[in-house]
Each structure stands twice: as C-alpha cells, then as structure tokens.
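User: Sequence in, structure out. Go.
Assistant: Echoing your sequence, followed by the structure tokens.
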Amino acid sequence: MRHLTIAATLLSWSLSVFAAGSQYTMRVDGLACPYCAYGIEKKLARIDGVEKIDVDLEKGLVTVQVREGVQITEPQMKRLFKEAGFTYRRMTRRPL
C-alpha cells in the first residue's frame, strides 16, 4: 500500500511539472501609477489562458503567467500596450 501511495504522489508531481505553462516578462514605458497597472491587468486578463499578472511600476515590467499551450506574441503585446497608451519595448519568455 505504501508503494502505491508513493507512486501516486510521484505521478501527480510529474503531471504538474508537465502541465506548467510559460512566464512572459514585458518591458513597458509609461507605467506610472496603480491605475495604469490596473488598466493593463484588465486587458491582459481578457486573454484566454492568462493565469497570473504582476506589474512592477518602478521597473516598468509586466509579468504574465499562462497555462500550458498558450502563447503571447510580440505583435499582440505591441498592439495591446499601444492601445492602452504605453510604449512596449521587449518581451522575454521562460517555461515554468
């Protein structure tokens, strides 16, 4: 019975590792206040698959975590930030 419990634990752990998505970090100019952050968060939250959003006003960074299989593209982010009145600079992606 103990081996079965260990096997089940390892299986659930391995599935969570494989189900991990990606984290995107965007450098954005013009983020100056909490209201700016809130507006960006609302726009990003509308994207299907976005699970977590963090805005660092001091550094001008927006970090977005998405579930597995979801991708955020440069053109998509350029358009989103331009429409919101901010200047998109660059984006990096890393797996979770």
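User: And one key feature?
Assistant: Residues 20-95 form a domain with the Alpha-Beta Plaits fold (CATH 3.30.70.100).
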